[in-house]
UniProtKB/TrEMBL annotation:
Shown part of the complete sequence: 1 to 339 of 682
Family per record: Belongs to the DNA mismatch repair MutL/HexB family.
Extent of the signal sequence: none
Chain's gene name: mutL
Organism superkingdom: Bacteria
Residues covered by the DNA mismatch repair protein S5 domain: 209-327
Protein name per its UniProtKB record: DNA mismatch repair protein MutL
General function of this protein: This protein is involved in the repair of mismatches in DNA. It is required for dam-dependent methyl-directed DNA mismatch repair. May act as a 'molecular matchmaker', a protein that promotes the formation of a stable complex between two or more DNA-binding proteins in an ATP-dependent manner without itself being part of a final effector complex.
Length: 339
């Protein structure tokens, strides 16, 4: 009979890391979301070689106390929730407490962090889940994570990475969305020492849209402001004439979080149906706010999927909001002429 044994912590973390950390963009997502949760007003992301060799995320948020640093890297350790009930009123982007342990399990991490009220900062080094250093250091307020050699100890994973250019474009897409969803935060993205994105953080979503997509898009936006049954939509709808051939232009955020949702995409696209050509996807950038209890974000470790408790109601509301938003301006519906 084979002997049954509990795996050691490093192996457990490595296995679990596979669910959260798929590619460099997953690391950036987790670290930038942590920076947002930490109350940062400026977040800089620097990468080299598509993030495969180096990613550095710097924020001016609340920092981590020296006595808490090692704990932050333990699986299921979080400052954001305390019990399962809290899962139904999550106001932070993180809550599962598994990003740092996952990242540290499959890369070489150096952290420098300092809370504003502390005199000294802390430098912490952890590689493949093993602590290498914990010491005082001079540091600016906030937190810098340096992540090197992603998947250096899981060669099978490393093989699945695409070219640096493709990995960099995933990171760029992600930062674009984060910048759009948080116009009050300044985002900077530096790829191989070149600045690719730098938003002002002045709080104006339209300015971010202009910065990212240019004048052509920014000049063809309709404001979206809709409220019904405690559900609120706020942001912009692109005029049908700037629709594109793929869904990359659909940016929607549920309670502040960038997610993918078939229900929402369908409601938006159905709302545009009479206004744009077939097989065209609209530009949208808007927030959907609803009671936390009506949405479950704890569906998958990456927190990109969500479940609505009342799907049909959400579909109807979003559809109605889009229709009304488009009708406000006398857009001419596309008339399908039968052949
Ligand atoms: P979660 O975000 O789900 O809580 P993480 O593993 O991502 O779990 O982070 C663990 C904890 O480390 C967080 O709850 C937070 O207290 C702390 N932390 C992580 N990143 C930062 C940061 N940039 N600034 C301040 N605290 C941070
Ligand atoms: Mg987190």
């Amino acid at each position: 009979m084979p002997h049954i044994e509990l795996l050691d912590q490093i192996t457990i973390d490595k296995i679990a890391a596979g669910e959260v950390i798929e590619r460099p963009a997953s690391v950036v997502k987790e670290l930038v979301e942590n920076a947002i949760d930490a109350g940062a007003t400026a977040i800089v992301t620097e990468i080299e070689d598509g993030g495969i060799t180096m990613m550095r995320i710097t924020d001016n948020g609340c920092g981590i106390e020296k006595t808490e640093v090692a704990n932050a890297f333990l699986r299921h350790s979080t400052s954001k929730i305390r019990s399962a009930e809290d899962l139904f009123r999550i106001s932070s982007l993180g809550f599962r407490g598994e990003a740092l342990s996952s990242i540290a399990a499959v890369s070489q991490v150096e952290l420098i962090t300092k809370p504003r009220e502390e005199l000294f900062g802390t430098r912490y080094v952890i590689e493949g889940g093993k602590e290498k250093a914990l010491e005082d250091t001079g540091a600016p307020d906030g937190t810098t994570f340096m992540v090197r050699q992603l998947f250096y100890n899981t060669p099978a994973r490393r093989k699945f990475l695409k070219t640096p250019m493709t990995e960099a474009s995933h990171i760029s897409d992600l930062l674009t969305r984060l910048a759009l969803s948080h116009p009050e935060i300044s985002f900077q993205f530096i790829n191989n020492r070149q600045t690719k994105l730098h938003t002002s953080g002045n709080g104006n979503m339209k300015d971010v849209i202009y910065h990212i997509y240019g004048r052509e898009v920014a000049n063809h936006l309709l404001p979206l402001d809709f409220e019904k049954n405690g559900v609120r939509l706020s942001g912009f709808l692109g005029e049908p004439l700037i629709s594109r051939g793929n869904r990359n232009f659909e940016n929607y955020f549920v309670n502040g979080r960038y997610v993918k949702s078939n229900i929402l995409s369908k409601a938006i696209e159905d709302g545009y149906k009479d206004f744009s050509m077939q097989h065209k996807y609209p530009f949208v950038a808007f927030h959907l706010f609803l009671e936390q209890e009506k949405v479950d974000i704890n569906v998958h470790p990456t927190k990109m999927e969500l479940r609505f408790s009342a799907q049909q109601e959400i579909y109807n509301l979003v559809y109605q909001a889009v229709r009304e938003g488009l009708h406000e301006k006398e857009l001419i519906p596309v008339v399908e002429v039968p052949e």
